[in-house]
Amino acid sequence: MCLLQLVTISWSQDVDYFKVDDLGYVYTLSQASLVKHSPEGDTLFVYSRMDLGMPSQLDVSNPLRPLIFFKQTGTMVLLDNTLSEQRVVRLFETGAGLPEWVASGVNQEFWMFDALNKELLRIDERMSVKANSGYLPNLLGRELLIVGLAERHEQVILADSNYGLWIFDRFGGIAKRIPIKGVIEMRTHASGIFLRTESGPLWYNYGAIEPGSFQNPKAAASKQLFDAQNGKYFYLEAKKLQVQYENAD
In DSSP terms, which residues pair with 8 in a beta bridge? Predict the structure, then answer.
């Protein structure tokens, strides 16, 4: 009889932040260095820019074009799948307002939340604004505390700690509202969305009416960073990345 054994592996290096892409590759941030690891944990590529400040956001929704945003200097860096620098965009110099959140989009575009005008902008590779939401407090009827921004399945998902999820179409129009209390962080995958909330982790399938609970003992007991992909569960504990998976014994 084959029994499934829960295996936990702790990575040796300290990690401040991590993300997992849809192919299972793991990206870790420590100080100003971004490292891409294989699904097995081997170091593949390293990227570092000490002159741009500390990275504030990492978007790996497109594994072929990871995006790093340095909020302090208003700089967006586009990489390829080997973490080679492809483009550096200094958003403060483009007249695009006050960038607070940036997310990768399709067709070489990206989304930006402009904290000055409080609107979502869809911007193409020439830095032309192709769509905007207008003033969001008027559109949504409330002030926002944004904790996440992503585009998936031609929908733009904005995580708001004060309300939950706001889902927009590609023209900046509101398409759906999903109230969820106390959202802390959002991580998106092709299959769905992980939400870290004050009451515990949640999983949301695109198109569902409401999110469901995420069943994992470590996740249920922890409010730390977590993610899951390809049968593996990842979480941070004392700056060490822990990886759990079931193995046939």
Answer: 244
How many domains in the chain?
A: 1
Q: Please report whether residue 174 resides in a domain.
A: yes
pTM of the model: 0.89
Tokens of 103: 């997310």
92: alpha, beta or left? (left if phi > 0; alpha if psi -120 to 50): alpha
Burial track 147-171 (b if 16+ CB lie within 10 A, e otherwise): bbbbbbeeebbbbbbebbbbbbebe
Average of per-residue pLDDT values in the chain: 88
Q: Residue 192: which of 210, 218, 219 has the closest Cα?
A: 210
**Comparing C-alpha atoms, which of 89, 29, 93, 84 is closest to residue 55?**
29
Residues in the chain: 249
Q: CATH number, domain at 67?
A: 2.120.10.30
Partners of 48 in beta bridges = 33
Residue 190, H or E segment: none
Query: Residue 217 is inside which H or E element, if any?
Result: helix 217-221
Q: How far is CA 25 from CA 97, 109, 160, 232, in A?
A: 33, 23, 27, 11
**Does residue 246 lie in a domain region?**
no
Residue 101 maps to a domain: yes
pLDDT at res. 207: 77
Band of residue 235 on the pLDDT scale cut at 50, 70, 90: confident
Q: Which residue, among 131, 128, 158, 129, has the nearest Cα to 145 in the 3D structure?
A: 158
- Residue range of the domain that includes 192: 7-236
